Amino acid sequence: MKLENPLTGTMVSLDDWWMPFTANRQFKAAPRLLARSEGMYYWTPDGRQILDGSAGLWCVNAGHNRKPIVEAVQKQAATMDYAPPFQVGHPVAFEAATAVANIAPAGMRHVFFVNSGSEAADTAIKMALAYHRARGEPSRRIIIGRERGYHGVNIGGTMAGGIPGNRKVWPAMMAGVDHIRATHDPARNAFSRGQPAHGAEFADELDRLVAFHDASNIAAVIVEPVAGSAGVLIPPHGYLDRIAATCRKHGILLVFDEVISGFGRLGTPFAAHYFKITPDIMTCAKAINNAAVPLGAVLASDAVHDAIVGAAPEGAIEFLHGYTYSGHPLACAAVVATQKLYAEEKLFDRAREIAPYWEQALHSLKGARHVIDIRNLGLVGGIELEPRAGAPGRRGLEAHIKCFEAGALVRFTADIVALSPPLVIEKAQIEQLVETIRGVLQKID
Ligand SMILES: Cc1ncc(COP(=O)(O)O)c(C=O)c1O
Questions:
Q1: What value does the mean pLDDT take over residues 41-52?
Q2: What are the residues facing 296 on neighbouring strands?
Q3: How far is the C-alpha of 431 from the C-alpha of 365, rounded, in Å?
């Protein structure tokens, strides 16, 4: 099968791009293609408008093709396309770091640039180990993640992550990880609005692992404050506070993976602000620059930064880590423009203000065909469908395809619809999204 690149008119084959997290054979037999975007919408190559219910992949928080971001990237590309970040710097990367540090929780101003959420997770893990070593506790090497956690697909994140399918092909590549259980508890919490009432005690699992491994061997706990990729799992009231308290008590670093929860998704700059918990390390990516150019970042507390930097001899490289594209000028120009746009348009406040309407609209799907749970927080939504007997995930995939055909892009994780629209979504578009999903659920078995 061939298709046309609308920008160049070239006819291209679908054969050569081995697509990520995609059923390649099925997709290439009946591809779903996007050719253009603006604001809340994509358009297919044949001109069909698709409402973006997932902000791309949880990343285009300001809406698509925003002019100030486009122009900043264009200008930077024409001025200096690339500059190495090792022992050489450039102003736009420093400006971007300051723009992110300015909205970070107090005491977390040290911004280490990477290129993705996956790289951010692996960088955070290396940073945690380097911190303990610098402080004279090199035995602290174990990383504790959580079942159903997602921290990207590099080795550290894969192993600290808790999605069985993502791990099973590569067992034991990273020794020294353990996991606490997920907080999902539909028997007590199904159809909760906002944070569920039950489950703070799941945090006690961490105490059990601390007793089991001994704190002197544990470097860090890494969790998503709101778990997205494994199906939108909202932390129960009090749960994250207990995790944070256990970490503090035992000198274990707390890493928040804010790759999807950062930059206004919950109506605050970061989930750390929403839950009023300051971790030691935070990872972010995606909406940091509205996904215009790949970029991720790791934010470190003063204590983490100062311990690592202070332990190295004068003139030595303190943290032997980094990427060719760390602080890429185009990506950083997009960060500066995006953060300015978020502030000027008060988009984080907007997300907070429209969240009650969002919650109401999503929960109107209670009772719709196949729906067994609905979860929400900020501008995040999860709608769980009953899996088909003997074929988990098939109903979800079919619903995803039918929604696309009906004009809405929604993400499915197995049989869970994960919704995370751009923060600029209007009430009428929320209705459209919900009614599209309702209509599709009526039609599919
Ligand atoms: C919480 C979390 N961490 C890490 C990642 C990985 O990010 P990337 O795909 O940019 O590597 C994701 C991606 O969705 C994510 O949701």
A1: 96
A2: 114
A3: 11
What tokens were used for 371? 């729906």
Which of the four pLDDT bands, split at 50, 70 and 90, describes residue 2?
Answer: confident
- Residue 312's Cβ-count burial label (10 Å; 0-12, 13-18, 19+) is middle
Q: How many CB atoms lie within 10 A of CB 133?
A: 17
> Which pLDDT band holds residue 328 (cuts at 50, 70, 90)?
very high
Residue 174 has pLDDT above 70, yes or no: no
**C-alpha 121 – ligand 1 centre gap (Å):** 8
The helix (H) or strand (E) run that includes residue 70 is helix 67-79
Q: According to the model, what pLDDT value does residue 170 have? A: 85
The set of protein residues with a Cβ atom below 6 angstroms from ligand 1 is: 116-118, 121, 150-152, 224, 228-229, 257, 259-260, 285
Average pLDDT, the chain: 96
Q: What secondary structure does DSSP assign to 246-273, as a single string?
A: HHHHHTPEEEEE-TTTTTTTTSSSSHHH
224 close to 260: Cβ distance less than 8 angstroms: yes
Model confidence over 11-28: pLDDT tens digits? Answer: 999 999 999 999 999 999
State the amino acid at position 369 in one-letter form.
R
Q: Ligand 1 centroid to 283 CA: how many Å? A: 9
Distance CA 392, CA 432 (A): 27
CB 143 within 8 A of CB 160: yes
- Predicted confidence (pLDDT) at residue 172 exceeds the cutoff of 80: no
Q: Please tell me the predicted confidence (pLDDT) of residue 347.
A: 98
Sign, Cα dihedral of 218, 224, 228, 232: positive
Q: Which two three-digit tokens encode residue 243?
A: 């995790």
Distance, CA of 31 to CA of 428 (rounded, Å):
29
pTM of the model: 0.97
Specify the ligand 1 atom closest to the Cα of 58: 14
Q: H or E segment at 342?
A: helix 329-344
Residue 399: other Cβ atoms inside 10 A: 22
